Amino acid sequence: MDFIAGTLFFFWVGMLLMLLCSVSGAEHYSSAVGDPGMRRDGLRIGFEAWNFCNEVGREAPGMGSPRAADCFDLLGSKHERRRKHREHRSINSTLRLKHRVTEADNKLGVGKSFSGLNPDALNDPDLYAAEKELYLGSLCEVNDTPRPWQFWTIMLKNGNFDTSSGLCPENGKKVQPFVSQNFPCFGIGCMNQPILHHQETHLLGNGTMMRGGFNGTYDLGYFGLGGEEDISYFEVIWEKKVGVGSWEFHHKLKTSSKYPWLMLYLRADATRGFSGGYHYDTSGMLKSLPESPNFKVRLTLDVKQGGGPKSQFYLMDIGSCWKNDGSPCDGDTLTDVTRYCEMIINPDTPSWCSPRSLPNCPLFHVTPGNRKIFRNDTANFPYSAYHYYCAPGNAQHLDGPTSTCDPYSNPQAQELVQLLPHPIWAKYGYPTKQGDGWIGDARTWELDVGALSSRLYFYQDPGTAPARRTWTSIDVGTEIFVSNQDEMAEWTLSDFDVLLTSVKS
Ligand SMILES: *[C@@H]1O[C@H](CO)[C@@H](O)[C@H](O)[C@H]1NC(C)=O
Ligand SMILES: *[C@@H]1O[C@H](CO)[C@@H](O)[C@H](O)[C@H]1NC(C)=O
Ligand SMILES: *[C@@H]1O[C@H](CO)[C@@H](O)[C@H](O)[C@H]1NC(C)=O
Ligand SMILES: *[C@@H]1O[C@H](CO)[C@@H](O)[C@H](O)[C@H]1NC(C)=O
């Protein structure tokens, strides 16, 4: 060994030892998603649209079932990609995208069979959509450990509810049509599914960039899609530099007088079983399910337009399902309960929980030091850290007057814990003051979602063992909650990752 080589040898051994030391004893991370940080050139993205109770109801004419996907592999040799970077020039002759989902697949709708379709689902729009999602998932699937994964999910929801339609159950129980003025609906057909346009991902800039997107409207008679007034609109455009950085997902969501309540999220859902708010088998991105308290979420968010005072922008919405006795959900909508925790970052959002409105507050708050503060402890309870709490409509043993959640907007009962930025969340890396993460405050967040969600109050029947808090949907986006004028929200999401933490001793 000559002198230089010897020095180098010891240098590398030293580096290796330093690396090992810095890893041991510290927190150790592994990603729960199939595409950590959204960096994979071969994108996998799915689309799903939901009516008020997370079903289809009726397909939009000519659109097929409201499930779609854009999944492809980037072909071209590594050598050529490397040379392209070295020489700062593009070699577009060799790079190409091989798509796995055809437009015919995306247009599949009731009455059209596909491989694996259960005949009972052929003419049922709700069951058909659930099976189409699994079919698209099978086309997009990527093998991985501990299990294969399918895609990121774009979820779009129309909040109109025609109570005379009989389409939505009440806390999971079938109910007769009824008359009510409590929900937005312009008349028959208000719960429709959208027109969906798809721009398949393609290479541009001489093969240095990739871009694709979904867009559309709920206004069915409308085909122009320009800047016209009072037309609802949604758009998600994804783009990425080949071989560099994260995909960027640019979102737009616009309400109109006919569609004043719309939701648009990008979700990392479970790859199988149920995902938040959905009582069918699902496809998704979470190859491992994160469980409280041992996970964090990292993402970059740039909110460009807020969507007005009613826009409940969620910098983290997590969804799961367990029964009131703490046992896992099994598809029985009478006893399954969807559970959500949402941090709302729009500074226009007031706190409905207050010393004078205790029913809108969770029964207690738990501090990072595990001190329990009851909501009637007016000297200590952090009221302004909560927007709204509502208990499941089928809870039998509530401790004092408590608001219950809307019984119709999920296929089963639901429970909501909605948070607002507040200094008490600082320990978890969450927004601590109004305006954090909002327009002009683009940031990369590392949120200790696991630790925070382990200390939230969720209803359970007395004397039952605490539920395992395993989360089947982790998402970001906005719910424009019955706006009284047309509103536009616009934001960009990138670098999304769910990190499982375990402390190595
Ligand atoms: C929506 O997407 C279609 C197809 O990609 C495109 O032609 C159209 O311009 C888009 N609409 C708007 C308003 O951007
Ligand atoms: C594509 O590459 C050619 C040759 O390197 C260059 O002249 C041209 O400007 C490039 N076009 C774009 C859109 O980058
Ligand atoms: C890349 O593609 C563009 C148009 O698609 C073409 O004009 C250009 O000549 C191509 N460059 C190379 C290096 O092949
Ligand atoms: C506050 O609420 C808790 C739980 O419901 C109850 O046990 C306690 O007696 C209440 N305290 C007062 C002062 O009302």
From TrEMBL:
DUF7705 domain residues: 31-500
Q: What is the lineage of its organism?
A: Eukaryota, Viridiplantae, Streptophyta, Embryophyta, Tracheophyta
Query: Which of UniProt's keywords are assigned here?
Result: Signal
Q: Which organism is it from?
A: Punica granatum
Q: What is this protein called?
A: Uncharacterized protein LOC116196295 isoform X1
- One Pfam family, please name it: DUF7705
Leader peptide range in chain numbering: 1-25
